[in-house]
Specification:
With 335 residues, the chain is α+β, with helices and mostly antiparallel strands. It contains 4 helices and 18 strands. The termini are far apart.
Length: 335
């Protein structure tokens, strides 16, 4: 009888250990590193414009920024660079320096990392051009992107954005061809936005902005998706051709990921079969093979992008006109 009691007690202890150990392991699950990436334009691995990435985790911060990449690398430090660990790296092709009239930068970029104990963060920014009028009264960024990531041992975050152009002034916040993503699970893209009011957004198209020519072209525009701890968004992505020989291209894409410890535990604890399966791909309409699907939204998108590009051209001319007028006034007053 005593032997039976001892056996029962031993089995109870072993059973308790078996039950408690996974729970303790899950409770101690650390968050994954925070990560973010964005690119203004990219064609395969041939060329990329304003490409940024940031990562923060147990190994520390790391960031990369490149206004121009050729073959996956910036041609020189004037066109991009990296920062591993705490510190800051930056560069540019041209910088006129600060002045009361205007500061003009060509291919400005920066990559930085900060660390304090278990906490660290990484930041990256890149643009083809930046124009600052006066003492920051008006700032224009052209073809830019930014990526940010944080980690503190209990949670991680990521956030990124990409723009065709931005204009910031007192009472004015204008963006053209914009996408943004956050590890909170939110992604967003739009053709234009004025003071937070979007014009033709990913919410308007709801995944229906697309064109397909079987075997030749697959194009998606104004996309956004996300879930627990991740999100992606983009203004345009396309594939020319099909299969492994196809050429991919993308414009104004953003992605981010990060989790807190509790969310990481829930994800690991969730049985795989209970997670929602991806939606099946839509069946191909055989009657439509060989002809271009008609989508009003895609036509509207093309028209809106055309308007946005016209506005972008106008935005680029304004600072130079202002600077010319200021210099002319200075010459007259000096004479």
């Amino acid at each position: 009888m005593i032997r039976d009691r001892r056996l029962s007690a031993a089995l109870a202890v072993i059973g308790g250990v078996v039950l408690v150990t996974p729970a303790v392991a899950l409770a101690a699950t650390p968050p994954p590193p925070g990560a973010a990436q964005a690119v203004a334009a990219q064609v395969g691995t041939i060329v990329a414009l304003s490409k940024t990435s940031a990562g923060a985790g147990p190994a520390g911060p790391s960031a990369a920024a490149a206004p121009v990449e050729l073959g996956g690398q910036p041609p020189s430090s004037a066109f991009g660079g990296r920062q591993k660990g705490p510190g800051k790296s930056s560069g540019h092709l041209v910088d006129t320096g600060k002045s009361p009239v205007a500061q003009v930068q060509v291919t400005p970029w920066s990559a930085s990392g900060e660390q304090s104990g278990d906490s660290n963060r990484a930041d990256a920014e890149a643009a083809l051009a930046r124009i600052i009028l006066g003492d920051g009264a008006l700032t224009v960024n052209v073809v830019q992107s930014s990526s940010h990531a944080t980690y503190n041992g209990a949670a991680s975050t990521g956030a990124s954005s990409s723009d065709g152009a931005t204009v910031h002034a007192s009472g004015l916040d204008l963006v053209l061809l914009h996408s943004e993503a956050s590890s909170s699970g939110k992604g967003f893209s739009e053709v234009a936005g004025i003071n937070g009011n979007g014009i033709l957004t990913s919410g308007d198209t709801n995944g229906s902005c697309m064109l397909t020519v079987p075997g030749l072209l697959m194009l998606n525009c104004l996309t956004a998706s996300g879930g627990v701890g991740h999100a992606v968004a983009g203004v345009l992505d396309a594939t020319l051709g099909s299969g492994s020989s196809g050429l991919s291209a993308a414009a104004f894409q953003s992605g981010a990921s990060g989790l807190d410890g509790a969310s990481a535990t829930r994800v690991l604890a969730e049985p795989p079969l209970s997670r929602p399966a991806p939606a099946p791909a839509p069946a191909l309409d055989q009657a439509a093979v060989g002809r271009l699907p008609r989508t009003g939204i895609a036509v509207t998108f093309a028209a809106a992008v055309g308007v946005a590009l016209i506005l972008l051209g106008l935005v680029l001319t304004v600072p130079f006109r202002v600077r010319r007028l200021a210099l002319a006034g200075a010459i007259r007053s000096g004479g």
